[in-house]
Specification:
Elements lengths: L7 E3 L1 E6 L6 E12 L4 E7 L5 E10 L7 E7 L2 H7 L4 E13 L2 E8 L4 E6 L14 E4 L8 H7 L2
Antiparallel strand pairs: 1-6, 2-9, 2-10, 3-4, 3-7, 4-5, 5-6, 7-8, 8-9
Length: 156
């Protein structure tokens, strides 16, 4: 059994979309480093105001599929980041568009090859159909190929 004492449970659905919808409030530049042989991810986020956030994440699946994940994060200073960034890892770079519309917060990740992958975090609520303004091509929530670690492996 997985201990959830310090973890946040994510219940995200993922969708391939045809376009970034209207309502973008902010765009972040993200570099994820999936550490080889571990369930660890190093994430560096660069925000429009010039700030940089770095953290080490540990992700544990609560089921056989990627639909529900327990996430624990530690925020890193420059020295910790430099040390951990030396670990062998697969890298994924993306631009994260934060869309706020009709009371919803949806993120759309723009991958380096132009693919657009939207995420909706349902939290503790019952999943609703994606909003009509999100031009969904396909739902890929249960498809292992569309997890960050798998995408990093493709782009390594």
């Amino acid at each position: 059994m997985v201990s959830l004492k310090y973890a946040v449970v994510e219940r995200e659905r993922r969708f391939l979309v045809a376009a970034v919808p209207d309502g973008v409030r902010e765009v972040w530049e993200i570099e994820d480093r999936y550490v080889d042989g571990a369930r660890l991810r190093l994430r560096e986020v660069r925000k429009p105001d010039g700030s940089v956030q770095r953290k080490l994440g540990h992700k544990v699946r609560l089921h056989d599929d990627p639909s529900e994940v327990a996430c624990t994060s530690l925020y890193l200073d420059d020295a910790e980041w430099a040390l951990l960034a030396e670990l062998p890892a697969r890298t994924l770079r993306k631009r994260r568009h934060h869309v706020h519309r009709d009371g919803l917060h949806v993120v759309v990740d723009e991958l380096e090859d132009g693919t657009l992958l939207a995420e909706i975090d349902d939290g503790d609520t019952t999943p609703q159909p994606p909003p009509a303004w999100l031009d969904v091509v396909a739902e890929v929530s249960g498809d292992e190929a569309w997890t960050g670690a798998a995408l990093a492996g493709k782009h390594a």
